[in-house]
Amino acid sequence: MALKGSCHCKATQFEVSEAPSGVTRCTCSFCAKHGGLWAYYKPADFRLATAPDRVSTYQWGSYTIRHHYCAICGCYTFGESPDWSTGQPDFDNPKIGVNARLFDDFDLDAVPVTVIDGKNLW
Predict the structure, then answer these.
(1) For residues 11 and 49, is the Cβ–Cβ distance under 8 A?
(2) If we measure between CA atoms, which residue out of 2, 9, 17, 1 comes closest to residue 96?
(3) Residue 64 class from Cβ within 10 Å (0-12 exposed, 13-18 middle, 19+ buried)?
(4) Count of alpha carbons within 13 angstroms of residue 15, beta-carbon side
(5) End-to-end CA distance of the chain
(6) Distance between CA atoms of 16 and 20, rounded to whole angstroms?
(7) Strand pairing of 46-48 and 13-16?
(8) Is 38 in contact with 27 (CB distance < 8 Å)?
(9) What is the pTM of this model?
(10) Residue 69 backbone dihedrals phi, psi, to 5 degrees
């Protein structure tokens, strides 16, 4: 069943194909500053439901990941990246990391949280 989400001001809205069975907390400097909990999807399972001009993008370091946030209220909403499950970027298998804290009508406390040591991995 599809799940909707949005930033604080609702200018950026999105939808995913299903609720996550778990989320990830990354300890890298970027994620730690944002405090997001990430649910990962294939690009086909994510839909931006608002105009793209409501979304701003931040990239740094290797410019491998596109971090998106609401251009109005500043909430970090989702990111686009290659799959990193092997420790190296797999550009043939992109994924969308959605900030699960922004899901509407979803009990985030009901799913397990996996910690990724991004502080020391990259």
Answers:
(1) no
(2) 17
(3) middle
(4) 6
(5) 34
(6) 9
(7) antiparallel
(8) no
(9) 0.89
(10) -145, 160
- What tokens were used for 39? 């649910």
Q: Position of tokens 């799940």?
A: 3
Report, as an integer, the average pLDDT of 79-105: 92
Position 63, amino acid: Y
Could you tell me the two tokens for 35? 């405090």
Alpha carbon distance 19, 84 (integer Å): 21
Read off the pLDDT of residues 24-64 as tens digits, 9 standing for 90 and up.
998 888 888 888 899 999 999 999 999 988 999 998 888 88
54 within 8 A of 75, measured Cβ to Cβ? no
Query: What are the structural domains of the chain?
Result: 3-121 (2.170.150.70)
The type of residue at 117 is D
Residue showing tokens 């410019």:
63
